[in-house]
Amino acid sequence: MKKIDDVNQGDLLTFRTADKNYKVLLCTSTYKEKSPKNFTFAALTYDDTEKPTIENILNCEFWGIANTKNEYFKYSDNELNQMWTFHPENKPYFLGSYGLVIWRKDFMKFRDNIDYIGNLKIVDNLDKNGNGGMNASDWDYIKDFFASQIYSAMIERGQKTFKVKAVTKP
Fold it and tell me: What are the b/e assignments for 83-96, b being 16+ CB within 10 Å?
């Protein structure tokens, strides 16, 4: 396994939790201009004993919300049509993801526990069109959260799941 030196928008990262299942993070944005640098991820619903492939991931979902139209972080008409093709029930609303923020300095401490799967071309501003987020910079917290808390926490925060294909670039 190659060490992850950098993370970019669209990167798919996988890791195992205490239940020995693989979970997946999708990088929705990065901040690298100056310190402190960070990465924002969407939590995906992948939960399996087999290491995921990009095809597996394209068939799973991410946690987020259908939100009112945002005048600051717009999607193109093609991107909106892609979203509404997969989720016509949400038209005219934008899809946004719930953000898990990981600070780069903390990520580097536990990067050996994470594998890079590949990169998907996704829409810009996915996390900015969501309605919440949390700091997820602690490895033990990430493992516990994904193993036993994610479903109840996301539902409690008003989040739903949406198809990953809905936010890939058409």
Answer: bbeebeebeebbbb
